[in-house]
């Protein structure tokens, strides 16, 4: 999946927004102001995963711990085009769900997620 595909998948999720807090070449996808995926300037993709998915994906070598974000259970893909589009789209939707679930009840209601 390329940068445009990641954007289409992420922005199709309810209340998801695109921001550029690290510069114009980094796309940060957020829900309720909290990041769930980042597409870097060199084409790498980082996203939030569950504790179990973190162990499985990094242990199997399918992803590596994301720089600066691994302690929060984020993984990094150097080339997201190496992954099947449907599988990557599912991981991005799960990343969104994990982050959205941690928003306050008021924030989820404001986004129409409650």
UniProtKB/TrEMBL annotation:
Keyword entries, A-Z: DNA-binding
An annotated Gene Ontology molecular function: DNA binding
InterPro entries: YjbR, YjbR-like_sf, YjbR/MT2646/Rv2570-like
Any one Pfam family match given in the protein's UniProt record, by short name: YjbR
PANTHER family reported for this sequence: CYTOPLASMIC PROTEIN, CYTOPLASMIC PROTEIN-RELATED
Protein name as annotated: Putative DNA-binding protein (MmcQ/YjbR family)
């Amino acid at each position: 999946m390329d940068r445009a595909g990641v954007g289409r998948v992420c922005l199709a999720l309810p209340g998801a927004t695109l921001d550029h807090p690290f510069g114009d070449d980094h796309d940060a996808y957020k829900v309720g102001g909290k990041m769930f995926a980042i597409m870097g300037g060199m084409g790498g993709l980082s996203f939030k995963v569950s504790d179990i998915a973190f162990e499985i994906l990094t242990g199997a070598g399918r992803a590596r711990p994301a720089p600066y974000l691994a302690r929060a259970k984020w993984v990094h893909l150097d080339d997201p085009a190496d992954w099947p589009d449907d599988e990557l789209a599912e991981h991005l939707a799960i990343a969104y769900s994990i982050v959205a679930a941690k928003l306050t009840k008021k924030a989820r209601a404001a986004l129409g997620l409650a």
